Amino acid sequence: MAEINQHPSLDGNSKNRSKKHSTRVDMTPMVDLGFLLITFFMLTAMLAKPRTMNLVMPADGPPMPISSSKSLTVILADQHKVYYYEGENIEQIQETNFSPAKGIGEVLRWKKKLVADKYGDASSLMVIIKPTDQSVYKDYIDIMDEISINDIRKYATVKIDSIEIALLQNK
Description:
By secondary structure, this protein is an alpha/beta fold. The chain is built from 4 helices and 7 strands, in the order E-E-H-E-E-E-H-E-H-E-H.
């Protein structure tokens, strides 16, 4: 800590003079604290792992048949637009967005409830994601977040058909 050193006066007549004291501050505790803080921040920065979502790629083999009433196709278009249709009813394609109130999340919950009411098992819902060439990566991450939030266990990402591209261009 801080010390005050007193030097004895050289002459014997020290009564009339004021005593000069020199101060010395010990910096050892400050250095120790600095190293402790550096160690703490280095350890916490290394222990924070990024969280990722696992993406399982399909194995080679024959295509898997899907019941039309258990499937929902989601098309990611440009300008953050989202289109969807049930089963093979591509003529009944509808537009939505990623808004929290009335977006694709509500559509996923509605379809999941419909499948649960009809078949007694909500986990049999299959969501097919079809991104267009003009869609952005953020939209794909957003739809994957919605799928994860709504606990949909079956989903696939496939290429968009030319029929669907033509329908989107007419909208």
